[in-house]
Write a structure and sequence with these properties.
This protein is α/β, with parallel strands linked by helices. The chain is 34% helix and 17% strand. It has 14 helices and 13 strands. Helix 5 crosses helix 12. It starts with a helix and ends in an 8-residue tail after the last helix.
């Protein structure tokens, strides 16, 4: 009997000790400590039987993080460990824009993820230039309504905008760190393209401000932005100047725009001459791929054009940059739609049980049409992040007409930053990859011959550039 009592006493003390450890660990997570998945380490989200996946030596995870319990609001993520030494490499969050477009459909499986969807939409192939060679890559479908992300409260879909998206992404990160606690103190970067030119700085600012509370600290070191929407007035000015300088529109149309359009005014589109002239720019762009001026468009029975028609809503959204959905294809979008609507794929990604399917589309036009708030400029955030010492690199594919290199140059010039290293070519494999200029607190580079989604066009150069960004080292300036 004494032996039994001693064993019971020992077990009781051990249990008390264990509970103490758990309580202490939970306290370190501050307000995020109530997540029931604290000790699971995301193992329930491990992807093991993805149809058509080639064999790889790294683990990847996908699933949901609930960002609002009351409303049933959940964001879908796909996380790839670095292909080598994942414990030693940083964590990078990638966001696509739209607003309304999928980071899984574009970033993960067309651009920088380790798997690219094959042309039949039924298999995956290895991307030899995947960014998870250099970092642990986290792709987020944000906000709710994008891709597989959802809310059980319909009114959430009526409130979507920049602030809503940033706050949900911030909550997602902290709850994701509870799933994957080993990444909580990891060096962290945020990257993205197109309308994520607003998402990324806005989320970075939120992290920077919240980091004043040690219990919420995220080790954010910098942001990387590709062909980003930055300042509406400068984006518009650059778009029409680029169209003219690349022979998309006539001298007369451009002259009318220069004389009648003041893109700094909220009533720009009330000027009929301006409205008609800009409409002519967009009409000409319908004949080609605005995201890639010198490549073919997708022709045939492909579903690749989902949401990509240039539906420009000037009068109804006068304070916003009208947006064309999506990015360069020409037909990859259709393959993605085929693949992600397969029952076995959704089951493998922990989206459904293989029977009650979710309708996945690469861009949600309803989000695009009803976006509530969009900051006219994120340049003030740039200044704030530069002052805080964060690394900011911006790059532009120079054959993109949607957010062209001129738009970005106009925006960055308006910052008035001192130049620390003058305009010069940078090289990759002894060829000019593009041109680059370094400012005090910011680096800007072009990619020669690349469209809107740069890694699709220049995958090897993009990976090399990304590596330089992570290292904080300039790309090579000599052959």
């Amino acid at each position: 009997m004494d032996f039994v009592l001693r064993v019971m006493s020992f077990l009781t003390l051990a249990l008390i000790s264990l509970l103490s450890v758990i309580t202490t660990a939970g306290a370190r997570h501050g307000q995020w400590s109530n997540d029931k998945k604290l000790s699971t380490w995301g193992t329930e989200d491990l992807v093991t039987n993805l149809p058509g996946q080639p064999k790889v030596d790294f683990r990847h995870y996908s699933g949901y993080v609930t960002v609002n319990e009351k409303n049933g609001r959940a964001l879908f993520y796909w996380f790839y460990e670095a292909s080598t030494l994942p414990d030693e490499k940083p964590l990078v969050l990638w966001l696509n824009g739209g607003p309304g477009c999928s980071s899984v459909g574009y970033g993960a499986t067309q651009e920088i993820g380790p798997f690219i969807i094959d042309t039949d939409g039924h298999a995956l192939k290895v991307n030899p230039y995947a960014w998870n060679r250099e970092a642990n890559m986290l792709f987020l479908e944000s906000p709710v309504g994008v891709g597989f992300s959802y809310s059980n409260t319909t009114s959430d879909y009526d409130n979507l905008g920049d602030d809503f998206t940033a706050n949900d992404a911030y909550t997602f990160l902290h709850k994701w760190f509870v799933k994957f606690p080993s990444y909580r103190t990891r060096i962290f970067y945020i990257a993205g393209e197109s309308y994520a030119g607003k998402y990324v700085p806005e989320l970075a600012e939120l992290i920077h401000d919240k980091n004043k509370d040690p219990s919420l600290y995220i080790d954010l070191r910098g942001i990387l932005l590709g062909n980003p929407e930055t300042c509406d007035a400068e984006d518009w000015r650059g778009m029409v100047d680029y169209a003219w300088s690349h022979a998309v529109v006539s001298d007369e149309t451009h002259k009318t725009i220069r004389e009648s359009c003041d893109f700094n005014r909220n009533d720009t589109w009330s000027n009929e001459d301006c409205y008609q002239a800009v409409d002519e720019v967009l009409r000409q762009y319908k004949e080609i791929d605005i995201y890639s001026l010198y490549t073919s468009v997708c022709i045939g029975n492909s579903t690749a054009s989902d949401g990509k028609s240039p539906q420009m809503m000037f009068r109804s959204t006068s304070k916003m940059m009208p947006r064309i959905m999506g990015g360069y294809d020409p037909c990859l979008d259709g393959y993605a739609k085929t693949y992600y609507n397969r029952p076995d794929v959704q089951k493998a990604l922990h989206v459904s049980d293989g029977h009650r399917l979710k309708n996945w589309i690469i861009c949600n036009m309803n989000i695009f049409d009803h976006w509530l708030d969009s900051k006219e400029s994120v340049l003030p955030i740039y200044k704030k992040l530069i002052a805080a010492g964060l690394r900011i690199w911006v790059y532009s594919g120079d054959t993109d007409g949607r957010v062209p290199v001129l738009s970005t140059r106009y925006s960055l010039t308006s910052l008035g930053l001192p130049i620390t290293r003058a305009w010069r070519p940078w090289y990759h494999q002894k060829q000019v990859g593009g041109w680059l200029q370094e400012y005090e607190g910011l680096t800007f580079a072009t990619f020669r011959g690349a469209g809107h989604a740069v890694p699709i066009f220049k995958p090897s150069e993009s990976l090399a550039f990304f590596t330089s960004f992570l290292l904080g080292e300039s790309p090579p300036f000599e052959r």
